[in-house]
Design a protein that fits this description.
alpha+beta; Alpha-Beta Plaits; 9 strands; repeat; transmembrane helix; monoatomic cation transmembrane transporter activity; transport
Length: about 600
């Protein structure tokens, strides 16, 4: 025991580096998630006495991860109130008239949205839009998805709040005594990288594959469209209005036909005036269906008992088992519809919609149903052996009347922090309070919008960085590196830091790399007597602008799966884009910083 204590006293710095090396190996092997590795690493520093209890828990006072969490909630509010969906609908409406111009508008929108929102939900939203734009323009979707993702990631490098990585680096830098970063301090260098990246995409598009995805379908696997019917009630105020003047239809709600009596019409129906009992056959995503259900203008779906309302009770999702006795029969004839007071408000089928209308759709195994009913009816459905995965639907209606509040809250965060009225963390927390008290988003949805894995990773890596500093490992590394860099020109430090961060981030977690390298970068700058600010900005952007592997950034993995790309597709175009963007950013830092 005394030997171990003596060893820890003499070789503290070296032991800290050993822990870091083991963490690096674990990150590369990927047998455990980066969060688990980071937490175990922080625990190792604590167990060996390299980090005391007070220091370990001091990382929870760092504002960076808390600000990241607040920004997740604000992004969730914009999605919940339908702001992001509305933007997507506008884009698709434009694409019908000017498909090629819409591509440029989507690129601009992706960059702007990603500058102020977490770019993961932005990319999730844009994936199905890119599939539809590919159909409208005739471009192969594989030539659109990677460029869209690249622009979204570069957009995240335009402001301090564009990525969680930026906020992590800024938070650690502030703890190290540097002057706090403003929201637009990195914008000139991010713009240089974005401009270079867009030019590179235009010149290197021939490197992108053009074969169609084999597995993704028309939406990239990210959106479930349902067939449903909108029923005009007898006393509806909509009776007598033209269908085309309702203002209901968008890329999220597509009119397929009009069912009147026993006849279904598909053509020239927009000028028809609604009558009592008319059924509008539409294709809509789950959120749009829930929004229509709450609006009260129509009754949705089909039921054996016409007095059963879609607005009553709870909505559940259920999958039809392959053993269901009604396979091949009409949906209206499914037994539980007659035995229980429920209403089927939508049916989803992989690859294509059933038809010709909801009631006449022939049931198949694996069809997914949206069903509204009382609590007693739902309990009965859970006991039905022919239905799989019966559970309350997680899809919620948009709160469009709260959209202006969510937009104002996000705008206030940007303006107040940009004008240095209050810090970005404080502004974000006040905005979260506003959107919660005004019910733009429910508390449970707000907390669900926070990526807890990211926050724990940040806290754990902050502890690891502090442990390295307290053990003397940072000083030891700087001492090794300093003699090698003293002979290098000062301007080359920016390039070295950028591409070192880029290389590590292509293999490891961006946030982990950022948290690990920030204190080392600042200590190195102080040792060499140079301004650490350009080096820290190089680290921020270099840790995020990673395009050469599907694991280089979390959104890379999203488009990798949606577009059915090969690993080599990313390498082929990602490596030159990495180099071009890196040279542009570093040159801007040298010339302007």
């Amino acid at each position: 025991m005394h030997f171990i204590t003596a060893l820890l006293g003499v070789y503290r710095a070296e032991i800290g580096l050993c822990i870091l090396a083991l963490m690096f190996i674990a990150f590369v092997r990927e047998r455990y998630s980066p969060t688990v590795i980071a937490v175990v690493g922080a625990c190792a520093f604590a167990l060996l006495g390299l980090l005391d209890e007070k220091s370990l828990f001091s990382v929870f006072s760092n504002s960076a991860p808390l600000t990241v969490g607040a920004m997740f909630v604000l992004s969730g509010a914009l999605i919940r109130t339908g702001v992001i969906n509305r933007v997507a609908d506008i884009i698709m409406a434009r694409a019908k008239k000017h498909p090629r111009l819409a591509l440029a508008e989507v690129a601009l929108g992706a960059a702007v949205l990603s500058a102020f929102l977490n770019n993961t939900p932005v990319v999730v939203l844009l994936i199905p839009i890119m599939f539809k734009l590919a159909q409208a323009t005739g471009y192969p979707v594989k030539k659109l998805l990677i460029p869209m993702n690249t622009i979204a990631v570069l957009g995240g490098c335009l402001t301090l709040i564009g990525t969680s990585t930026n906020l992590i680096v800024a938070g650690i830098a502030a703890d190290q005594g540097m002057e706090p970063f403003g929201i637009f301090d990195i914008t000139p260098y991010g713009l240089a990288g974005a401009a270079a990246g867009i030019v590179a995409l235009l010149c290197l598009s021939f490197l992108l594959p053009s074969d169609p995805p084999a597995i993704s379908g028309e939406t990239g696997g990210t959106v479930q469209d349902y067939l449903t019917e909108l029923v005009v009630p007898q006393d509806s105020e909509l009776i007598g209005r033209e269908i085309g003047a309702l203002g209901l239809f968008s890329p999220s709600v597509v009119l397929l036909g009009l069912k009147r009596g026993g006849e279904i019409r598909r053509r020239e129906i927009l000028t028809e005036e609604l009558r009592s009992g008319d059924r509008l056959i539409v294709r809509a995503d789950g959120t749009a269906i829930m929004t229509l259900r709450e609006s009260g203008g129509f009754d949705l779906g089909v039921a054996a008992d016409s007095s059963t309302s879609a607005r009553e009770g709870t909505v559940i999702e259920a999958m039809v088992a392959p053993s269901h006795p009604s396979i091949g029969e009409r949906l209206l004839d499914i037994p539980f519809l007659h035995a229980l007071r429920v209403r089927i408000i939508g049916i989803h089928r992989s690859r294509h919609l059933p038809g010709p209308a909801l009631a006449e759709a022939r049931v198949r195994g694996a069809d997914r149903l949206l069903i509204a009913g009382s609590d007693d009816a739902i309990r009965s459905l859970r006991d039905n052996p022919h239905l799989i995965g019966v559970d309350i639907s997680r899809t919620r209606a948009f709160r469009r009347n709260k959209a202006w509040i969510a937009m104002a809250a996000m705008a206030a965060v940007v303006l107040l922090s940009a004008l240095d009225v209050i810090g970005i963390g404080m502004a974000a927390f006040i905005a979260v309070g506003v959107i919660l008290v005004t019910r733009c988003i429910d508390p449970e949805e707000a907390w669900a919008a926070i990526d807890g894995d990211v926050l724990i990773l940040i806290f754990a890596m902050l502890a690891v960085g502090l442990g390295l500093e307290r053990a003397g490992s940072v000083a030891l590394m700087v001492g090794w590196i300093t003699p090698l860099l003293t002979v290098a020109p000062v301007w080359s430090l920016v390039f070295i830091i950028y591409f070192f961060a880029l290389l590590l981030s292509e293999l490891l977690s961006n946030n982990a790399v950022a948290a690990l390298l920030t204190p080392i970068t600042i200590a190195l700058a102080q040792q060499l007597g140079v301004d650490p600010r350009p080096l820290v900005i190089a680290l921020m952007i270099g840790a995020s602008a990673c395009f050469a592997t599907p694991i280089g950034y979390q959104t890379n993995a999203l488009v990798y799966a949606a577009g059915d790309y090969r690993f080599a597709d990313f390498v082929r175009i990602g490596v030159p884009i990495n180099i071009i963007v890196g040279l542009a950013v570093c040159s801007a830092l040298v010339l302007l910083g």
